[in-house]
Design a protein that fits this description.
- The protein is an alpha/beta fold and 144 residues long.
- The protein has helices spanning 28-40, 58-73, 85-93, 106-111, 124-143, and strands spanning 4-10, 13-22, 45-56, 77-81, 101-103.
- A 5-stranded mixed sheet has the order 1-2-3-4-5.
- α1 (28-40) packs parallel to α2.
- The chain is globular, with a radius of gyration of 16 Å.
- It starts with a strand and ends with a helix.
């Protein structure tokens, strides 16, 4: 299965809905080609919706870092939304969580590009603590 990318815009911000694996040979090239094409067309503020991304490997991470660096150099930004627990763990383990902006939902991600809008940032610590609490609860139930 390869990565499928659907493109749309909200308030002038490009949103790319990614579906499938962001891995070597499956999605890295599609996304690596799409981001510079958007940059060349003047679109430098982009949100990546990772809700339906099944897997991210080191090549996929490299593609995200490459896109982030290119957009920042052009005066733009890259925001990530709808990460699942395994994706977030990968960003934390590789210490890339400090480089990216994460958001719970699309509206918060889009609003982040507008300084006059109220913004709710993604709380990584809360996300991790909620997962730990649910894992402990699941373990307790299994022990009963």
């Amino acid at each position: 299965m390869s990565l499928h990318i659907e493109q749309r815009e909200t308030d002038g911000i490009v949103i790319l809905d990614l579906k499938g694996p962001l891995t070597l040979g499956h999605g890295d090239l599609e996304l690596r080609d799409r981001l510079p094409a958007l940059h060349q067309s003047g679109k430098v503020n982009i949100v990546l919706n990772l809700k339906d991304v099944s897997e991210i490997d080191s090549t996929g991470l490299g593609t995200l870092v490459f896109g982030l660096a290119r957009l920042r150099k052009a005066g733009g930004r890259l925001a990530l939304e709808n990460l699942n627990r395994s994706h977030l763990k990968l960003f934390l383990l590789t210490k890339l969580a400090i480089a990216f902006e994460f958001f719970d939902d699309e509206q918060d991600a889009v609003d982040s590009f507008f300084p006059d809008r109220a913004l709710k940032r993604f709380d990584i610590l809360n996300f991790v603590q909620q997962g730990d609490a649910s894992n402990r609860g699941a373990g307790s139930e299994a022990a009963c």
